Amino acid sequence: MGSFPPAPAPGGRSLLNPFRRRFRLSRETWVPLAFILPALGYIGYFAFYPSVDVVWLSFQTPFPAAFGYNYGSLVQLRLWSAVENTMVVTAGALAIQLVAGMAIATILTKEFRGKGVFSSIAILPIGFATVVAAFAFSLIFPAVGGYANSALVGFGLPPVDWIHPNAQALLTIMLADSWKNTPLVTIILLAGMTTIPRSLYQAAAVDGAGPVRRLFYITLPNLKRFIAITLIIRGISEFNIFALPLILVGNHPILLTVLVYNLYSPTYPAIYQDSAAASVLLAFVAVFIVIVIAMGGTRR
């Protein structure tokens, strides 16, 4: 009769040792994990679970065998117009904020008299409430009159209705939102610029590189990750912009968030259509984040 192999001596090797070493949590691993678990639980319960629930509700209908009925009905409720307007506002506002934020951040990297006053004025708009910003820009860009039209008339140009035509209304939303949120973009980009060694610019200047070449070959490549962070933070907010356009221009032009607001009802089956509109918005945000991470998540 055969015998079992002898047990390994204390301190000897065992076939399970590699697995134990691999899955054993050291103090340096489980202590940080213990700190972030409450935050992960909070995000999972209050962010991911409601999102999954909304997507599930978007496919529920009171009619049997009507898969996708809620999404099909959104086409009759100006869905494509809302998607187009949301994309235009998001792209336009992000472009304005990146260009303006880059310009202001570049100025703030220099030393000049009055820099403290300039930086305070540049950062000030972020402290205003959204309602206040919307009200202020409704005085600057109204349908009739307003400060902007007064300036146009002063230059001999005809006044403009800034609210009712679709293009002017979207432009007004982009300008108002950019005025309020450009300071955040400036802060992020300025933090990134402080990490770029001055020696790179000095060497480029010695080689004869002008400001434009230094911008495209030194500044922008080294700011790639900071620009990605900016796009994610601001892009999510732009897709979800709601209070400012609703106060500034009302329901026209329609945006995805305004469409979700108009469709909302706690009763059934209305909540199914509202969940479908919210799921469309969620899909755009998710795709945008994936694209930004893929393009800006690695260094050159």
The CATH homologous superfamily is called: MetI-like
The radius of gyration over CA amounts to: 27 Å
Count the beta strands. Answer: 0
Biggest β-sheet strands, sense, barrel: none
Reading the helices and strands in chain order gives HHHHHHHHHHHHHH
Q: What is the straight-line distance between the termini?
A: 66 Å
Number of helices: 14
Query: What is the CATH C-level name?
Result: Mainly Alpha
* Total individual domains: 1
Structure description:
The structure is a single chain. This protein has helices at 17-23, 27-58, 69-74, 79-108, 115-123, 130-140, 146-154, 166-193, 198-206, 211-222, 224-239, 243-248, 256-263, 270-296. The longest helix is centred in the first third of the chain and has 32 residues, at 27-58. The relative contact order is 0.13. The protein has a single domain, classed as MetI-like (MetI-like fold, Orthogonal Bundle). Helix 4 (79-108) packs antiparallel against helix 11 (224-239), helix 8 packs antiparallel against helix 11 and helix 11 (224-239) runs antiparallel to helix 14 (270-296). With 300 residues, the chain is mainly alpha-helical. The chain is built from 14 helices and no strands.
Structural key phrases:
MetI-like fold, 70% helix, globular, 14 helices, mainly alpha, single chain, 300 residues
